[in-house]
Write a structure and sequence with these properties.
The chain has about 350 residues and is mostly beta strands. It folds into two domains: about 170 residues; about 160 residues. The protein has two helices and 25 strands. It is flat and about 75 Å long. About 30% of the residues are buried.
Amino acid sequence: MKLKFLFIVFSLVTLLTTISPAFAFDFSYIKSIKYSASNLQFINFVPFDGNGRPTSSPIWFVPSSFAIKPKATNSNGMIIHSQDDDFSQKISVTAIGTLDINGIVRNGVFNLQSNSKADIICSIFTDQRVYCQIDGGSIRITRSGYNWNGQLDYFTYDMIGTDLGFKNIVLIGYKNSQEVLKINIVTDYFKFGYLNAPLQVINFDATSGNVNWINTPTIGVKNSGITFNFNNYTQQKSLVKGQIFKRGGIEGRVELFMGGTLDIGGNIETIRNEVYTYPIETSFSECPIFTSDHIHCIIRFGYIHTYIPSHEDVTLWKTFFNKFVLDIQNGKATVSAGVYSDDDLFKISNMVIGNYKFR
């Protein structure tokens, strides 16, 4: 009880110093966070007493001797957030691999399971970090001739986000106030559900504008034999249009079309850039500013397809990005996207708003 009290005090102090007021409103409408993962990394494991054979402590389990098979991790779980600001949870981690004990290699299994009825305290719940303490937790490790299970006092669940979204979870288990387990779960995806909130909708389109830059991405580039040089690119037309529904989370679509020409060794080729974004539930997208005179949205899923149109299109690249930023104010729109930042792929500013309807 004393340990839990200290945890609450420490966590409240941490919360007050790390929460971002600009984004907290949107994230407070998160109803559930589900995840699925097929990859994990052991950072630390300290054997402790439990029940098993041939020993009550699994001194025979050494993470560096446990080779997890590719795609043989099954980790999934959820954090549920109620309108009363209460939390519940369910966490399961299973890793299958080969375990070397004294030079003998056999198949082995590691499993961590939470009790879905166990108490959970989420002291940080923002777009930047989700940090929870979960009581209990059982570990089971098996291999031919070896079998052990033990109970944790509690473990922590830590999602650290960036502007590019959430990518992993760190679980740390404790026994007798000592850290005995630490694993990093590299997620395949997060899936966010939302509580109900008043509905707001925007429909818009914008044209023209200044194409500040278009960069060749580092991923998704096809073997077209064509080198894209922005200095040899002439923008001719651009259009961004979309519809966004905001009710706790956001839904809808934003699409961008850029057309121009590219001088390739004296040959002038038509170039099209098509951008499609989807604020889907598997990525946390948000509109921290959503008023009739200012829209600022961050969409964390989409792609750009750049190609030369012909009877068989020549694709220069089709690249999925992690962040698309839309800003509308004073009758103008700015859009940008990036894999590693806000705008490492492209940026267009001063697009002229045409149709604009906010309700």
